[in-house]
Every structure is written in C-alpha cells, then in structure tokens.
C-alpha cells in the first residue's frame, strides 16, 4: 500500500544504519575477542542479508511468512554466533553482541507485515535467543526485550494506521469521483428532464381537468428529482441518511415528517426502504382516489427505524390484497413486503374502506461495532 512504503524504506535505512554501527563496534573491539575472524564472517553474512532483505522486502508480494521466517532465522543465527566470537562469560556480564541493534530489523518487519501482536511474538522470541546467547535472562536481555517490544508494536500500529488511512483515502477518492459524475448527470438532467417536467407541470395546471392531474404528478416528480440530484446522502462509511431519501418524495400531495437529526442506516438498507416507500406512494396515487393525500412519518428509535405511509383515500376492502395476489398483481407483495423482508424488516398494512390505508415499515437497527 502506498502509505506503508515510507515505513518499509525507514526499515531499510535502519538495517543499513544498525549494520554500520555493528561494523564500527567490531572495528573497535575485535582485538579483544577470542575469535575475531568469526566475527568478521558474521558481519559479512549480515551485510549480504541486509542487501538481500532490502531488495526482497521492496516487493509487496514477498512480504509473507517464508521471507519473514528467513529474516528471523538469519538474525537469530548471527546473534547466537556472538558466543563463539566474544565468549559467553563477557556476554553474561553485559558485553555487546556482534549484531547489536541489527536484531530489531526482523521484529520491525513482522510488525509492518503482520501487525502488532505478531511483532510482539517476534520480539519475545528474539529475547529468548538473546537470553540463550548470554546464558541467562539478565538485565541486558530484559532491556533488549522491552525495546524490541516497543519498537515492533509501534511499527505494527503505524502500519495499521497507514492501511486504515489508505482505505479511507481510497473511499474518499471514490466518493469524489462519484460526486463529480453525479454533478455531470445533474447538469444534464437540469438541462433536459427537469425543464420538461417544469413545463408539463405549468401547462397542466393552466389547462385544468385531466391535464391538471398530469401537471401535479409532473410537479411532484420534478421536486423529487431535484432533491435527489442536489443531495449526497451516502457517507464515507457506506451508510445513508434515510430522511434525505424519503424527503425526496415530498410534494403537493405528499407530506413528510422526519426527525431533525440524521436517521442513519446501511446504504443498501436505506435505499430499499426508500424504494418501498415510493411503491406505497405509487399505490396511493393509483388506488386511493384523485383527491387523496399521503403522509409519511419517519421515526428513529433506539432499536429500530419505523416509516409509516398513511393516506386519507378510499381505503381497501378486506381480502383485496389476497385477490390481487391471486390475479398476479404483486405490487404490494414484491415492491413493499419483498423489499423490506430482504433487509430484515417487517411490513404491517392496515386499511378500512372509506378511511384510508396505512403501511408501517419496521427496520431493526443493526448493532454498531464498538
């Protein structure tokens, strides 16, 4: 990932710097070591592995278990070789090992590639190797383990933050691109569809009669379309404010009442609920009578969201929905009940002849992750 690249480069710099420090210590102390030639051999291995590790870790596909385990094994081997170079007695009394700070490199790599927890495991395992090298778990080993734990977990946490930040940036970039496309479409709609709907609305109201009803419907669709193209209702987390979607249906014959604060649902759920509300309003226009008005109420409760669509129209006789389903007319069954059922909700439909119809949609609120 792009934001992790600087961290891997920092690790590469650390490998080189810690190797240079190990060479400096060897150059200063090799005359006091029992077997300095083994020490120079260990440094040659460390140099070769530093070059190889930097080259291999530069490719994201290589940052997997085989390379990570090899990195740990080579480093642990160089650390254990300190016993033959320096002697265990000086090491037990706190002398520096041959690799010195270079042993932190695989722990940092584990943190970047595998996260904080596995970096902690690598740090503890390297501490065990350090204790075996010195022959005892003394204060020097304890200090080394603490430093390894802190550095590994910090690098792991930084890698996690980088991954999360990159994912958020990607999502923001996608939303920005979607908004630009949306603005382009909105301009096209404004220059064509909205102007036609405005003209139909105005001319229909002027002509009266059946044309007035056509004009009224055109006006409602114009208002709904303007609301949709003017509002971005999806959040970065993929959720949506149900109020915005439902408010798009407000018009001369439709009143919408919703809370003052956002009614947040997963984006897909919110769109399905809004589509079910649209179907209910279509039924009002088709069956409730020409003078019927519809009222939409959105209620945001702690454990559920309730949307009620009520009209003051002609209502329905008992058994009418069953007759419609038997005749193959499945608007309510599929467009309302089916949509709501698919997102885990329920629909209650109440109607009395001469007293309107009420459709109540209940959606359980999903638990938020803590």
Automatic annotation (TrEMBL):
Signal peptide: none annotated. The keyword Cell membrane does not apply. SUPFAM superfamilies: ATPase domain of HSP90 chaperone/DNA topoisomerase II/histidine kinase (SSF55874). Residues 347-370 are annotated as: Disordered. Pfam families: DUF5931 (PF19354), HATPase_c (PF02518). CDD domains: HATPase_UhpB-NarQ-NarX-like. Residues 1-169 form the DUF5931 domain. The keyword Kinase applies. Residues 270-366 form the Histidine kinase/HSP90-like ATPase domain. InterPro entries: DUF5931 (IPR045975), HATPase_C_sf (IPR036890), HATPase_dom (IPR003594), Sensor_HK_TwoCompSys (IPR050482). It comes from the Bacteria. The chain crosses the membrane at residues 7-26, 38-59, 66-87, 141-163. Keywords: Kinase, Membrane, Transferase, Transmembrane, Transmembrane helix, Two-component regulatory system. This is DUF5931 domain-containing protein. It comes from Luedemannella flava.
